[in-house]
């Protein structure tokens, strides 16, 4: 109990667009739930980037590293502004090697698919995203996919640890080792080796194309999925789509020393500043963060309050067909705590 009540400091990056509004919802709900967290706020923004200086000031990165835990709203991705995405910069600078996205059907939210309850764990540092492409001769390009034992074992171990911590039963490695014998072959081999260290968790393997079909028709086959970078990118968006989309999907980025929670949606510039945003995705991301910090009871209580409001359906934001403002929806969640 003493660890559960110790005050912790967590970095908060409100972000651009609707970021400040949904971050405000997180602060209010966690405060109302009595979560022992105080915030250290960092106004990182694409708007604050100064040409010729670091995209994200090194003292900000140091602070997040020192605190170890952070939550961020969406940051605008500049198109044609000549600098890299802040989201990507942050991920690389903090060594966030795994992306976790639980996708679970929410009672009361209509979807066209059977009930889904899966957690996608995506390798976030290598694979097809290493950016090694070149034109051999005009009309012929090559693109490299890099798979390493270190990164594969690291993400596999994280998947099993996540499964154990969250009382999940099965981890399925998704691959295309039938064709990519060396790269996906090694990824799969690493997953098998790590699986042997977790006899309490069932291990399965599935080809990615079969997995895609089954996710839509028989999602109960899957529990925790572990994938390489591009495969994880695609399957995680597919799974998010199955359960009701952008405004509801949480994610957690895991590094060796840093954990950063973030919603998967963008800055939603069309509704920014109007108190119309749905804060659920960031709130559920905060729930993931609390679980990772060992604050299970707080996490469960907040999650339950969110699900209750969504199930009852009286107070919903516009993206879910309701009329409630972000602040009203937030208040409704607080009233269920
Ligand atoms: P960015 O460039 O930052 O990715 P975007 O223009 O692509 O921004 P998204 O944030 O990806 O916008 O959103 C796409 C659509 O979904 C928009 O119409 C937006 O209003 C809506 N949307 C996204 N997130 C939310 C949310 N949390 N609540 C309500 N609507 C949302
Ligand atoms: Mg977008």
UniProtKB/TrEMBL annotation:
Pfam family for this entry, one: Iso_dh
Keywords: Magnesium, Metal-binding, NAD, Oxidoreductase, Transit peptide
Source domain of life: Eukaryota
SMART domains to which the protein is assigned, alphabetical: Iso_dh
Bilayer-crossing regions: none
Cofactors that this protein relies on: Mg(2+); Mn(2+)
NCBIfam families per record: mito_nad_idh (TIGR00175)
Protein name as catalogued: Isocitrate dehydrogenase subunit 2, mitochondrial
Biological source species: Cyanidioschyzon merolae (strain NIES-3377 / 10D)
């Amino acid at each position: 109990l003493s660890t559960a009540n110790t005050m912790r400091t967590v970095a908060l990056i409100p972000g651009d667009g609707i970021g400040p509004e949904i971050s405000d919802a997180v602060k209010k709900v966690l405060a109302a739930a009595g979560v022992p967290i105080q915030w250290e706020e960092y106004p990182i923004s694409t708007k604050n980037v100064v040409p010729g200086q670091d995209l994200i000031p090194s003292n900000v990165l140091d602070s997040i590293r020192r605190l170890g835990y952070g939550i961020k709203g969406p940051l605008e991705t500049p198109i044609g502004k000549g600098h890299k995405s802040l989201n990507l910069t942050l991920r690389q600078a903090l060594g966030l090697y795994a992306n976790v996205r639980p996708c679970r059907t929410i009672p009361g939210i209509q979807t066209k698919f059977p009930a889904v309850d899966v957690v996608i764990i995506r390798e976030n540092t290598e694979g097809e995203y290493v950016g090694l492409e070149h034109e051999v001769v005009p009309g012929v390009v090559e693109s490299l996919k890099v798979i390493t034992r270190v990164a594969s074992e690291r993400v596999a171990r994280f998947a099993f640890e996540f499964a154990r911590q969250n009382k999940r039963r099965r981890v399925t490695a998704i691959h295309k080792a039938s064709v990519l014998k060396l790269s996906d072959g090694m990824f799969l081999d690493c997953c098998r080796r790590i699986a042997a260290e977790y006899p309490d968790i069932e291990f399965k393997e599935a080809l990615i194309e079969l997995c895609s079909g089954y996710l839509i028709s028989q999602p109960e086959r899957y529990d925790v999925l572990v994938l390489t970078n591009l495969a994880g990118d695609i399957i995680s968006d597919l799974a998010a789509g199955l359960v009701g989309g952008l405004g509801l999907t949480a994610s957690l980025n895991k590094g060796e020393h840093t954990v950063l929670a973030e919603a998967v949606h963008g800055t939603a510039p069309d509704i920014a500043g109007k108190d119309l945003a749905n804060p659920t995705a960031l709130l559920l991301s905060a729930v993931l963060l609390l679980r990772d910090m060992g604050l299970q009871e707080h996490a469960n209580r907040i999650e339950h309050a969110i699900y209750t409001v969504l199930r009852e359906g009286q107070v919903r934001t516009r993206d879910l067909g309701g009329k409630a403002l972000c602040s009203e929806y937030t208040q409704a969640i607080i009233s269920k705590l």
